[in-house]
Amino acid sequence: MNAKLSIVVPFYNEEETVADVVAEILRAVPGAEVIAVDDGSKDRTWEILSAIPGIRAMRFPQNRGQSAAMYAGMRQTTREIVALMDGDGQNDPADFPKLVEALEQGADVACGYRAHRQDTASRRYASKIANKIRRAFLHDGVRDTGCSLKAFRREAVDHLIPFNGMHRYIPAQLLRAGMKIVELPVNHRGRMAGTSKYTNWDRALRGIHDLIGVSWLLKRKVNIRFD
């Protein structure tokens, strides 16, 4: 199973945790292709990342955002299945096998949702409202698009249109392409170190702006898929 899997993980100013996160991935899914993308970090993240054996490391010369880092990594994958996760240590790579199993059972896309989210009450509440509004606009049915743990077949990457904020709308884009999506509960943990790169207010403003654009995009997008 792991021989079919490529894992893409972005990092931005995560010098305190990058080595531990990568080591945990390698232990959890030995044999998988790991593509780690340094999104223009200003600390020692790249120095640490580039010295880790057994992975493919990429680096942006400047910060371009999580979506850009994920998309660049996805474009470099070589395996049959692509999986995503965050680089802050809150996602658990031990959940990848269950996502891959869902694909082997017939799903095109497997999305994790944080059943027991380890965040502040204000962040959980803001996320709940944002997910509810997104579902109302896009009708994607996904309960927790903010969870980065996802897996899909490599050809699905060709259906994604890259833009700043894309990572929150991967399920909506792939659903529009006619793909079958399933959701599975996954583990969620508190941050190992550091702080979140966004505030609730930042997320709210980005979300409103993105929803308008993505709603238009999905209505106008040409769906080309040969079965």
Write out key terms for the chains shown.
7 helices; alpha/beta; seven-stranded mixed sheet; 227 residues
Question: What's the short version?
Answer:
The chain is an alpha/beta fold. The protein has helices at 18-28, 45-49, 66-75, 96-104, 121-138, 170-176, 200-220; strands at residues 5-11, 33-39, 56-60, 81-84, 109-114, 150-153, 181-186. Helix 5 runs parallel beside helix 7.
Walkthrough of the structure:
- This protein is an alpha/beta fold and 227 residues long.
- It is built from seven helices and seven strands.
- It has helices at residues 18-28, 45-49, 66-75, 96-104, 121-138, 170-176, 200-220; strands at 5-11, 33-39, 56-60, 81-84, 109-114, 150-153, 181-186.
- Strands 3-2-1-4-6-5-7 form a seven-stranded mixed beta sheet, sandwiched between helices.
- Helix 2 links the parallel strand 2 (33-39) and strand 3.
- Helix 5 (121-138) packs parallel to helix 7.
- It is globular, with a radius of gyration of 17 Å.
- The relative contact order is 0.17.
- The model has no long low-confidence stretch (mean pLDDT 85).
Topology, please?
Layout: E1 5-11, H1 18-28, E2 33-39, H2 45-49, E3 56-60, H3 66-75, E4 81-84, H4 96-104, E5 109-114, H5 121-138, E6 150-153, H6 170-176, E7 181-186, H7 200-220
Parallel strand pairs: 1-2, 1-4, 2-3, 5-7
Antiparallel strand pairs: 4-6, 5-6
Helix pairs in contact: 5-7
